[in-house]
């Protein structure tokens, strides 16, 4: 298990507290070691973002969209498996606020992050001579494409959408407060969050953003949607808020595939059962049931 919410958040907390102490950026120490090790893995995902890759017949480029506080490095278990299976795999890091050290993604307004995804995806379509992409999105990354399709220029450009603990219906204010406390902020105010990480309050289930996202339906017509969630989610509660309500949408609980799995919100992308779920969605013809007992690591 590479990530835990606490380890990522405590790195984040150090970064944010440094920012808040109004020290000039040049005087700040380097990002905490945990963050550096996450960053270091970025360039090690071999074959990722290869714009010479030609999707095989019946396949589309696959774009991976990470969660709040993470970066494209969080796909370092998922991406190599997809690449080995012959998919053309792309990933971006979005929502980085340069005023917050550490390179955390997913901090900026969700609208601006959706625009970053739009720009990235339009470039992938152009460079690979494709008309559609498949998207796999984790947490906040699981709703950006829906915003792209509904409110930007994404209509018709997404074939499949796989959500890994996607925040389709937002999270609760109390979870945001829990995160804020982990940041070391006792009475976290929205003002404070809005300064360095406006996405946080936009993820609350009653926010204007979530209302707008789901106005007229919580899925994109014509897109094949599927979602996987975990019982042990500490960010998206209750986990059923990950589900989408359209006909024909697959909504699956990780523990229904693998009763013993203890994966929580951030480690979902390190689970081999989740990786098998993603493969099954992207290539239903060769779909296999993940046998969690046969999996040594990360079930
Ligand atoms: C990129 O894709 C091309 C075309 O499939 C392939 O020849 C090349 O080896 C790939 N490069 C990497 C770094 O995977
Ligand atoms: C896309 O099409 C252009 C022009 O036909 C070609 O030069 C390029 O190699 C193609 N790229 C891929 C990844 O197929
Ligand atoms: C938001 O979450 C709270 C806490 O679970 C719940 O009571 C409330 O009904 C939710 N509101 C909406 C609009 O989903």
TrEMBL record:
Organism, as annotated: Linnemannia schmuckeri
Superkingdom of source: Eukaryota
Gene Ontology biological process: lipid catabolic process
Any one Pfam family match given in the protein's UniProt record, by short name: Lipase_2
UniProt keywords, alphabetically: Signal
A single MF term (Gene Ontology): lipase activity
Signal sequence, start to end: 1-27
Record keyword Signal present: yes
Name the UniProt record assigns to this protein: Secreted lipase
């Amino acid at each position: 298990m590479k990530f835990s919410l606490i380890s990522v958040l405590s790195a984040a907390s150090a970064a944010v507290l440094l920012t808040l102490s109004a020290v000039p950026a040049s005087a700040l120490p380097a990002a905490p070691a945990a963050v550096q090790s996450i960053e270091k893995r970025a360039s090690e995902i071999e074959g990722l973002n290869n714009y010479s890759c030609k999707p095989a017949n019946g396949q589309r480029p696959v774009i991976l969209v990470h969660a709040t506080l993470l970066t494209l490095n969080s796909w370092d278990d998922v991406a190599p498996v997809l690449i080995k299976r012959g998919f053309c795999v792309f990933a971006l890091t979005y929502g980085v606020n340069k005023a917050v050290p550490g390179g955390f993604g997913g901090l900026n307004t969700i609208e601006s992050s959706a625009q970053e995804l739009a720009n990235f995806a339009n470039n992938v379509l152009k460079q690979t001579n494709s008309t559609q992409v498949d998207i796999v999105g984790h947490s906040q990354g699981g709703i950006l494409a829906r915003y792209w399709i509904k409110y930007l220029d994404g209509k018709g450009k997404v074939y499949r959408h796989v959500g890994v603990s996607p925040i389709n219906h937002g999270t609760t204010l109390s979870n945001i407060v829990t995160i804020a406390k982990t940041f070391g902020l006792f009475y976290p105010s929205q003002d404070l969050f809005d300064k360095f990480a406006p996405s946080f309050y936009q993820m609350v289930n009653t926010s204007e953003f979530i209302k707008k996202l789901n106005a007229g339906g919580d899925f994109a017509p014509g897109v094949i949607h599927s979602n996987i969630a975990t019982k042990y989610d500490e960010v998206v509660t209750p986990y059923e808020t990950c589900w989408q309500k359209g006909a024909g949408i697959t909504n699956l609980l990780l523990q229904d595939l693998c009763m013993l799995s203890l994966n929580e919100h951030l480690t979902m992308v390190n689970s081999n059962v989740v990786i098998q779920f993603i493969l099954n969605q992207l290539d239903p013809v060769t779909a296999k049931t993940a046998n969690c007992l046969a999996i040594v690591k990360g079930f």
